[in-house]
Structure formats: C-alpha cells, structure tokens
Amino acid sequence: MKRSSGILLHITSLPSPYGIGNLGQAARDFVDFLSAAKQHYWQILPISPTGYGDSPYQSASAFAGNPYLLDPDAFVAEGLLTREDLDQTWGLRPEETDYGRMYEKRLPMLRRAFQNAHETTDFDDFCRAQAGWLDDYALFMAVKAKFGGGPWLDWDADIRLRQPKAMARYRRELAEEIRFHQWLQYRFFGQWQALRAYANSRNIAIIGDIPIYVPMDSADVWSNPAAFQLNRSRRPRVVAGCPPDAFTRDGQLWGNPIYNWDAMAADGFSWWLQRIGAAARFFDVIRIDHFRGIESYWSIPAHHKTARHGKWVKGPGMALVDAIKNAYPQVRFIAEDLGYLTPEVLALVKGSGFPGMKVLEFAFDSREPSDYLPHKYDENCVCYTGTHDNATLRQWYEESSEKDLDRAYARKYMGISEGEDFCEAIIRLGMESKAGVFMTQMQDYLDLDGRSRMNVPGELNAHNWRWRMLPGAANDQLAERIAALTEAAGRA
Asked: Less crowded by CB within 10 Å, the N or C end of the chain?
C-alpha cells in the first residue's frame, strides 16, 4: 500500500436528518472532504444489518447490506416516497443514532417504497445472481418476522431444522415478505455501488471491515449448520471470546459459534471464499477482524458464563490465508493483529504478507517499552491513532491510567512541551511514521471527548455504536489543516 493516509468514520456516523447516516448526499460530501484533505482512504465498519445491541459486528448475515443505510431522499426523487413519509421524528439528538426509532419506523417507511416500486428485469437479474446467499437470507428474515423477531433456535422444529416441506411451505406463505427483503438488498447494492464509484472517481479507496465470526442468530448459521461446531439440536458446543487480560478479569465472552474448520477445509473453505468475494464487491481493501483467530482461537464451553476457562485451539492458519490469496490475488487486505500475539500469530501475519496494525494509544506505557512505538514500525503496516474500540485521543489523554507518568513519557518521546497540544502531536507522530498507511478516527481530528467514543468492547453500553458527526463539522478549514499535515508528511 502506497504511502498515504485516511480517516475512520462509519456510515452511520454521518450527519443526516433521518436519524442515522446513509449512502446519500452526506456520504458524497464526506468523500469530497476526504479529497480536499488529501486523504486516499475512507475506512468504515461492517455494513451488514445490525443485530443484538445494535452492533455491526453482530449481524443477521455476513453477505447482506443494512437497510437502515439506504438513502430516503433517493426514493423521494424516484416518486416511491413523499416528503410527508420522511417527515417524522427520527431521534431527538443529532449527535447520536436512536436505534429504537430505527427499529420502529425505518422498515415501515421502506415497505411503502417497496409497495410503490415496479418489478424490473434488473431486480430479477440481481436475485438470480445473488441467489447463493440471498434466497436463504430473505427467507430467514421473513420467517424471523413471522415468529415475532425471535431467534431461529426458538422457531418450530420443522423450519428450524430446514425440513424440505417446511422450507417450501414458508416460501409460499411468505412470498411477499421474502420479495421485500430481496428488494431491500437490490436497492442497497445499487446505492452502494454508486457511492463506491463516486469515491473511486475522487481517488478515495474504501476500507471495509469483516468480522471473523458471525452470530448464532444469523442466516449464515441457520443455513450452514455443518460449518459450525454445533450439537445435534443445532445449539453451539463452544463459543468465541478472548481470555482474561489486564483490562478484563473474566475475559470477553462474545458468544459467537465457532467454525468447524475441519469441515470448511474439506470443501476448500468455500463459505469463506464466497464471503470474501461478497466483501470485494463492496470494498477496495478488506480488513479482517481478529486475524489472530485464524492461527488459534479462544474456545469456551457454551454453558460457561464467562470466558475465564476457555482454551486455545489451533485454527486453519496459512491453509485459509493461501486459499483466500489464491482466489482473490487482486484484493488488498489488512490483518487486524491486535491482542495476544504469540510467535505463531506473528509468523502467520508475516507469511500472509498482509499489513498488520499499530495503535498509537497502545504505545506509551511508562512501565515498559511497547511494540507500538513508531520507531519500531516497518513500512508494511497501518498505523492508527485508535480504532472504533478505543477511546478518542482526547478521552485517552484525560483518563489514561498512570496519567502523569504516561503523559510525561509520551511528551518526552515526541519532544513536545507542556504547552503544545498533545492530541495534535499524536496525529503528527502517526503522519510522520514509517507506516505505509496512517488512519485517524474522525473524532480525533475533531478533538472530541469520551462522549463521542464509538464502542466499549465487552459492554452492552447504551452509547455504543451511536455517535454521529454534527452537520458542518467536516468543513473547509479542517480539510485545509489535514491537507497541510498530510503534505508535510509525504502522504498526499
């Protein structure tokens, strides 16, 4: 990846009068802002439908797009909705998404657009081309609605176990609802490709995120049970998470079912290759979340209440990486290699050739030297101020443990005085590092505090995933300041 830089800002965090960022004009305006700021990358979080806890990392499908992100103005322009359809309260605070209102109001609005739409050959062609995942996903969403939104493990046994007669019966009974969910995906793909083409025309590449795991309550597990470590009743035998560390005494219990890697290897990792192919249709660069889980994963018995008593189990390693690289030699990847890194994990990252990640918020521990200090970087890495799971720089500066010692250590390392702005100095440090690509959270350029943090891992926090940028924040003056920093660091 050529020496360059970019900004991390999820689609949902864009300003919008409709309660959540979308693929419309504000997204194109942000592309223009990135271009004016001399940036070359826009990094986002997963764009799949959000599930439990509103997390984009817990989705009903690894292949589908999130209907909440559809641009309502486009449907008005086409005559599928009226301004009155859009004229409702989408939330009281422009700086955050009200997911409760989204759940209550957004799909009924989109259903009106669907009912006003006409069948087209393009729609039918899309459904045929995407049938490998779309048929099961649309049926899953329709049956889920019929059972009051409950998890598929609580459905009637015949459809839960995908018995052929039940599958055929529900496809007949729920044909209109199935068509609705297919149409939402058709429109999402169309709007997304238009936005991606616009970004690429401005020399902006989109970095997209794919979670390593999928949730139990997903079309992926329901339709591919043999690909996961499930028991005879199709409940998980083991679940994913992270072991205890200095930040979490009990570890993190994610609860995702773990892949049956032996079964996946036996068919050449076909599900994974389909998933990467789907991501490549959305993104210019794919960041694989929790890459270390490909080398070995923390396996927790499903009945345990914490992650404390899990164990490390070997994953597919280079066999999966080689399968992906051979199938998609033209696709660029980033390995999210944060966390507990063993020599085996480091060898996997090196063997893959994918750039790993360096996070500046992890660099300044006054108690011991850190591998995240910029003088230890090589060029084949992506440096971040912080990720969506970290504090904003302002919050980190104000709340970091051992504040005085860590701050003093960081100031000494950067050669700045007490009077100079700490957060701006961190950004400049990353810009000037040897890392091939430098990424900054938009919140850090805006110098926002902890109220703008995107996510606190392992917590069902009422503020997780809700932050939105206020209108006018990404202005010409900020673009000029970022452009100057970028040009001075040779990343323009």
From this structure: C
